[in-house]
Amino acid sequence: MFERHEFQVRTERNGVLNITEKVVEKINDSEIKNGFCLVFSRHTTAGIIVNENEKGLVEDMESFLEKLAPEDKKYMHNRGPDKNGHAHLRNILTGSGQTLPVEKGSLVSGTWQNIFLVEGDSPRTRNIDVYLIGEK
Amino acid sequence: MFERHEFQVRTERNGVLNITEKVVEKINDSEIKNGFCLVFSRHTTAGIIVNENEKGLVEDMESFLEKLAPEDKKYMHNRGPDKNGHAHLRNILTGSGQTLPVEKGSLVSGTWQNIFLVEGDSPRTRNIDVYLIGEK
Amino acid sequence: MFERHEFQVRTERNGVLNITEKVVEKINDSEIKNGFCLVFSRHTTAGIIVNENEKGLVEDMESFLEKLAPEDKKYMHNRGPDKNGHAHLRNILTGSGQTLPVEKGSLVSGTWQNIFLVEGDSPRTRNIDVYLIGEK
Questions:
Q1: Which residues of B touch C133 (CB under 8 A)?
Q2: Mutate which of A54, A65, A111 to test chain C, going by most C C-beta atoms within 10 A?
Q3: Considering only Cβ atoms within 10 Å of each terminal Cβ, which end of chain B, N or C, has fewer?
Q4: Total structural domains in chain C?
């Protein structure tokens, strides 16, 4: 079986935004009980990661990405209309999607694992897809 | 259903090389209409990423990888015959493969999403595998 | 078909630890002959990568992660009881899991590809899950 679900996130700032609840909702709505779930961003300036949802850590993650790919650096890409070179580079680090296990109708995740959208080019309305493949 | 496809890329230089067209061709040839596609490099010095195919950005991505893992730095690995430590480290960042959704017989991807081979140890002939799993 | 396997790794130090043999054992035990395998860490301070198992390179990979996210840096997250901010940041780079192809009952991997647990918060007992989806 294969299913596609989708939700939207309105991002008001660049950073690491928790989307776990919305992903879990889609998995819980699914008829697929055992299989793989692909949380996928169709954007090249917004990626998906799995990490802990702790306030200080979210700040650390944002500083980390800013340090590795600073927003105000001169990028060749920024000669064009879009000033978002930093966001594209951060997507190399995060990836566009994460594959996660689903078992007995639920997302399998460790105690501290949350799913985050890493927004690099806000404000935007982001489409997040949740694909499931597996068995009833 | 499960399918394996494969194609080769001759790389003449290190960098970020667009392979989208070849991946799409394999997906279009496939009998699998809905499912997951794994674009996979069987190499530890060449990874796979998803990003925008814009000339300036490609240069930015190459500079970014060179800055994080410089080619001429002294690596322990380079004591041996292979002088490609930088390429192995870049593979940590990019990953060896990317899982992408397939729906109604086509790759699902955003307007700007392209698939790139990140070559770190050219010139080489690289084998890129495209695995599909799903339903007709 | 869907299967879940699991094994444990006792980590005595932070670093890049080869788990290929244990993953291969689970794949070989599986009834699934063709499909996808997800090697997944349910931990936010230990990730999974694919790379070459060469002694010097393992040291290079460890130095690389230490340089990008140093263990003794001041992290907001470290105000709390856990002094593992560096390990969380390394997980952004490595990812929590890797999806790999399985064909004819075996892991498909290049000559040099091994699977590693990247431990950032040892000593711990880590649960590594191996999920398989595919056909007999």
A1: 133
A2: A54
A3: C
A4: 1
From C56's Cα to the closest Cα of chain B, the distance in A is: 5
Nearest-by-CA chain C residue for B67: C68
pLDDT category at A37 given cuts 50, 70, 90 is: very high
Task: Tell me which DSSP letter residue C71 carries.
Answer: T
First to last CA, chain C: 8
Partner B contacted by C98 (CB < 8 A): yes
- Residue B113's CATH number: 2.60.120.460
The nearest CA of chain B is from the CA of A128 a distance in Å of 11
Report, in angstroms and rounded to the nearest whole number, the Rg of chain A calculated over CA atoms. Answer: 16
Residue C5 Ramachandran class (φ > 0 left, ψ -120 to 50 alpha, else beta): beta
Tell me the pLDDT tens digit for each residue of C68-121. 999 999 999 999 899 999 999 999 999 999 999 999 999 999 999 999 999 999
Cα gap A124→A122, rounded to integer Å: 5
Distance between B119 CA and the closest CA of chain A, angstroms = 14
The three-point CA angle B35-B41-B42 to 5° equals: 115
Asked if C116 reaches chain A (Cβ–Cβ under 8 Å), the answer is no
Three-state helix/strand/coil letters over chain B: CEEEEEEEEEECCCEEEECHHHHHHHHHHCCCCEEEEEEEECCCCEEEEEECCCHHHHHHHHHHHHHHCCCCCCCHHHHCCCCCHHHHHHHHHHCCEEEEEEECCEECCCCCCEEEEEECCCCEEEEEEEEEEEEC
Which amino acid, C94?
Answer: T
Q: Which two tokens stand for residue B104?
A: 């109604």
Work out whether the CA dihedral A41, A44, A46, A51 comes out positive or negative: positive
Tell me, what's the pLDDT at A18? 98
Domain housing B103: 9-72+83-127
Amino acid in the structure at residue C28? N
Q: Which residue of A has its CA nearest to B113?
A: A44
Contacts with B51 from chain A: Cβ below 8 Å: 44, 88, 91-92
- Subunits close to B (at least 3 CB pairs below 8 A): A, C
Residue A37's H or E segment, with its range, is strand A34-41
A59 touches chain C (CB under 8 A): yes
Mean pLDDT of chain A: 97
**pTM across the whole model:** 0.97
